[in-house]
Amino acid sequence: MDRPSRLEISARGVTDVGRRRDRNEDAFLVDEALGLFVVADGMGGHAGGGTASALAVETLRARIRSAREADPAPFDDPGPAESSRLPEILRRAVEEACRNIYQAAQEDPSLAGMGTTVTAALLAGRVAFVAHVGDSRCYLSRGEQIFQISEDHSLVNEQLKAGAITEEEARSSRFRNIITRSVGFEEEVLVDVMGLEVNPGDTLVLCCDGLSNLVEDAEISRIAREPIADAPEKLVALANERGGDDNITVIIARVGPDLAP
To answer: Which of 103, 159, 193, 199 has its CA 20 to 30 A from that of 241?
Structure first.
């Protein structure tokens, strides 16, 4: 039986400093040719956060591009998600980013303690692989439903899972920005990697907590179904209307042609 042909991907990303921060420490990548999409939310030091997030994005792009040039087969025909080599390639790219960031901090005292979240999606054929560390998120919007693919590595999420707080309490918790896992703070990191089959019309949304803390999942789903030329900016504007207390970054990647404007 012939495999389904590669699906077209339409994508757009935006980032905004927000209304209460002096600088933007987020970085993102939209590379439709590679099928690679990354959101990184940096933290630490005067210049550390922006350095960490930029280094993460640069490392992932270089590592995935190098892997594809060396062996394009798994990218062109990834086969079933459970037997693909792409998850390991993506995992190793995040691990390399972690080592690069950690080493940069060791060499420059002004960058000590820096780190970043990383949420990356790699689309090949009819499969999407997601690598995740931290509390930035990847959502799948399918029809009128939205699913959070990644799991937050955060203190609040640990409290939620333990039943120590309610979802309402989590939304207003003063600990909601404390993450339990990051890329680059230590030399090694445990990376969550997931795979899912995608269908024409599916939309992936990658975002930092500057969006997800202020905009409900249902609102993200509704706006993400709009044309990509406008949807990312609308989500950023909504977060800013509600206070914009952090940097805001969002990528929308639609499987198949974009909607007509």
So the answer is: 159
Q: Which domain holds residue 218?
A: 9-255
Domain count across the chain: 1
Please name the helix (run of DSSP H) or strand (run of DSSP E) that holds residue 227, with its range, or none. none
- Entry pTM: 0.93
250 pLDDT more than 60 = yes
* DSSP codes of every residue in 9-27: EEEEEEEE--SS-SS--EE
- ∠ Cα 73 203 129 (to 5°): 35
Q: Where would I find the H helices in the chain?
A: 48-70, 73-76, 86-107, 155-161, 167-172, 209-212, 217-224, 231-241
Q: Percent helix, strand and coil across the chain, each rounded to 5?
A: 35, 25, 40
Contacts of 59 (CB under 8 A, 6+ apart): 93, 96, 97, 100
CATH number of the domain that residue 124 is part of = 3.60.40.10
Q: What is the pLDDT of residue 119?
A: 98
Please check the confidence at residue 4 and state whether its pLDDT lies above 50.
Answer: no
CA distances for 9 relative to 15, 27, 97, 117, 151, angstroms: 20, 21, 25, 24, 24
Length of the chain as a residue count:
261
